[in-house]
Amino acid sequence: MSANPGSENRRLLLHRRPEGIPTAADFAHVSDAVPTPAEGEIVIRNHYASLDPAMRGWMDAAPSYMPPIALGDAVRATVIGRIAASGHPDFPEGRWAMTLGALEDYSVAAAGGFTQLIDADAVPSVTNYLSVFGAVGLTAYFGLLRIGRPTPGDTVLVTGAAGAVGSLVGQIAKIKGCRTVGIAGGPEKCARLTERYGYDAAIDYRDKDVSALDAAIRDAAPDGVDVIFENVGGDIFDAGLLNLNEGARVALCGLISEYNREPVGARNLWQLIVKSARIEGFLIRDFLDEFASGAVEMGSWLADGRLAFDEHVELGLDQAVPAFLKLFSGANNGKMILQIANDDGSAA
Amino acid sequence: MSANPGSENRRLLLHRRPEGIPTAADFAHVSDAVPTPAEGEIVIRNHYASLDPAMRGWMDAAPSYMPPIALGDAVRATVIGRIAASGHPDFPEGRWAMTLGALEDYSVAAAGGFTQLIDADAVPSVTNYLSVFGAVGLTAYFGLLRIGRPTPGDTVLVTGAAGAVGSLVGQIAKIKGCRTVGIAGGPEKCARLTERYGYDAAIDYRDKDVSALDAAIRDAAPDGVDVIFENVGGDIFDAGLLNLNEGARVALCGLISEYNREPVGARNLWQLIVKSARIEGFLIRDFLDEFASGAVEMGSWLADGRLAFDEHVELGLDQAVPAFLKLFSGANNGKMILQIANDDGSAA
After folding, report:
1. Residues of chain B contacting A273 with CB distance shorter than 8 Å
2. Does B215 contact chain A (CB < 8 Å)?
3. ipTM
4. Helix/strand/coil for A155
5. FRET label pair with B84: which of A4, A7, A102, B285, CA 20 to 30 Å apart?
6. Cα–Cα distance between A335 and A32 in angstroms, integer?
7. Is A70 helix (H, G, I), strand (E, B) or coil?
8. C-alpha–C-alpha distance, residues A247 and A225, integer Å
9. Which tens digits make up the pLDDT trace of A89-117?
């Protein structure tokens, strides 16, 4: 692998559609020429890429909220970096920009739309645009407040609670006066839930079946659950459904346990009927009109030191696949970010 | 079995909790003394009982929206009949009344609450209080309009579409300007969907897996589905979820395919996320404040001949179990009602 940026564009291609957990053989590392921008386009020297569970869905052929990644195309990802070449006067070379690009050294993007300039000086780390100031933060904010609609005194159950989104959801729920119960894998993550993210109670899902999970939730939330922020699915979701209060809301954000297998599904839907409860899916695009107001409120909490957040940075484009897989094994602590380039633009 | 009412109270008891499809051995026919009312109570000579899929849930030990039927108790059911003895001045003997009683000749009930007088002369048949003028009609009305929230031009998919609730849902959706697609079992029921209940398209679920059901729905609803009124669950629900439009609403009324087995669950929940769609459960108790206005509107459609409805009456308390099981085999056409007594009060 070359450490000579500017002369080549290393890219991670989707070679075949994964069955179950992706393996290295599903991808191909190639090196192409560095692209040049047409008029209205820019070329970004990618410094960081966001690695998200949703990317697993884009690797399948099934219809989703965006087209599947075509076989032979680079693996789609949100990236940030410096503009290396510009065909648009509002996007000068050297400025930081963000786009829905791919796992590659250089991404070509049409200026505007999802491709926007970002101000690296306005944030503690430019990577924050991939975490708390980006889709992750907005997902937690709008998913909890607009879909979960907690009121003070409610009990909010968060699955995947130590993850990038879940850790923020718990803290926002506390700010809103709720009791919070988080589910995560392993004693270290559970300690992090209560000690760092302020959860009132933490449940380790490991080695627990639906019945044991149900008992653990009942113990942690004896008055029942008013809101579930669901990131996981499967047994964990089944157990959560058994603890709903009347009129409860489930904000369905993700189903990470289901992405690499035939889904086991939600087998306690009957509880929705007997509790007059609902499950509602969402994407942050649903709240486009409110992004600014949400960002202002999140920003104020951050400025007041009321939100802790974590980023897990893995180094190097050649680590893309193992880093991505850590999302599914739970080996990450915080938002998973792949560093592609060093500050000076050399390969990380 | 005696045909001598007044001298005994034949009752169908829950002998043990069914596993899977109930069998005759799960129940016991007994004959007790006819009860006498305490002050404030009435004794109803039951003429008709409503047989509903939800009763299967009451036979399980699992928590639900009402307590399980205790072993050794008579099988709970909504019943109508004439007051045989009264301990309450507002409930005179001989008047028709309705209560949540049981499958038995005589039910004791506290006057008031769910126990109400009904006016047999106000309806074509007193049995209508167990169908279109009862819980069935209100379930269809409020479930579709308040939970499904269709707007004119929407496509509404109804599962269990030939059933008591489903047949009304399709007609109400048509009245509201929607395109309706119904799913039912067998060519006769499908013919009934389009010819009698006005469905725009009918799908026979028999011998179709999820993929074939998906294709059939896509064919019948090429512009996608805005509202699902779900009565069935399992493969049929999985296929429906694959056809949701953005912002679609699923009114979850029942899961009849799941009641007699380990639930297979909803395995396409991912579609809720990518379509920003929701599943919402409900019980008609949620709309208690609106019962009167709903009944008025349903009544006006009935008076105008805009709603067809069907009742399937089986004769005799000794037929209770086989009649109940027809709900799950789909052998009924219309609201399943068990006739316990003839007009003169003799055993039916």
Report:
1. 65, 252-255, 281-283
2. no
3. 0.91
4. strand
5. B285
6. 29
7. coil
8. 10
9. 999 999 999 999 999 999 999 998 889 99
